[in-house]
Amino acid sequence: MSTFQNSRNPDAHSPGTRCGGLSPQSRLVAGGRPEPVADAPLNEPVTLASTYHAGGERGYGRYGNPTWEAFEDVLGDLEGGSALAFASGMAASTAVLELLPAGAVVVAPDCAYLGVLEQMRERHEARRIELRQVDVSDTPAVRAALAGASMVWLESPTNPKLDIADVAAIGAAAHEAGALTVVDNTFATPLLQQPLQLGADVVVHSVTKLLSGHSDVVAGATVTSDDGVSARLDRHRRLHGATPSPMDTYLALRGMRTLGVRLDRAQANAAELTRRLSEHPAVTRVRYPGWGSICSIEVVGGAPGADAVVDAVQLWVNTTSLGGVESTLERRRRWPAESHTVDESLIRLSVGIEDPDDLWQDLSRALDAARRH
Ligand SMILES: *Cc1c(COP(=O)(O)O)cnc(C)c1O
Prior knowledge:
Keywords: Pyridoxal phosphate. By secondary structure, this protein is α/β, with parallel strands linked by helices. It is about 35% helix and about 15% strand.
């Protein structure tokens, strides 16, 4: 049995969401397949179609596609709602923000995925929303910001500080305040956290990351169990055209078939590496919630020290993005828009599935470079 059933994420609800007696790992493999009739393919093929014969439900290539639907069936099943595939995580996030009426108050993290925060700030400056940024790991601070809010946007763990938001407590308080709770579940994946079971209304994914898992797809998704919200998001996708390519949703589902074993290995690697990193003399702080495959470290020597580390690695890849089978790292403050609450020396690590001893050897040698700064 996979270790996920005993995940160290206290919020994981895997056993409670078993469907038809199958665990999430099995549903990732068995779901979203064509009817098992003679000579049917095992996998839903890539359907390249701009239009369909009249009289059916899909109608047109911007409205629906069987390859999208196979992907959506599997993701929706795992999150416990109905999923919609989008062109990117940003397209999915935009669709959710477009649910808001003009001038709506949005409570959002002070530090989170930059693209989403930058879009929110632009909307705020254009007076399309009123943005209130708080530390989402501080539940009383979130509660205090809720008066008059229409939406609470959470990321947990947060990027790149790996703080944890109490989704259940915040979701309950948001409901009382009449606000919709949105959770960007990209870092956790539905194997480690199911926000809808914790009381959230909408889940957003950058499918680009762990779900597709091989650094070769840009795609996104929303999931909700609220039929009205789902219909509005679907209508947004139709009218604003933020549709994914059939090939990308095919690759995303193919990647998701192995999410269980990939995450199992990456999580075990991350746990072992963070244990060793906490004892390395060049590391001043390790940020890891105790589960998942993403962690961050702060190192001696400030920005130059961290730059020396990312320049010195050979197996690890110095790059942005995360969640692939390969281990990657980057100094986050190299991005001018990154929050100034993030230390100059913070390096975010996306731990992959390589041999942990090889990863350690490469990283610890590179960390010695920071000590020379
Ligand atoms: C990458 C990412 C996004 C944006 O997704 P894209 O697929 O790059 O558009 C949103 N949220 C988080 C947490 C991410 O890591």
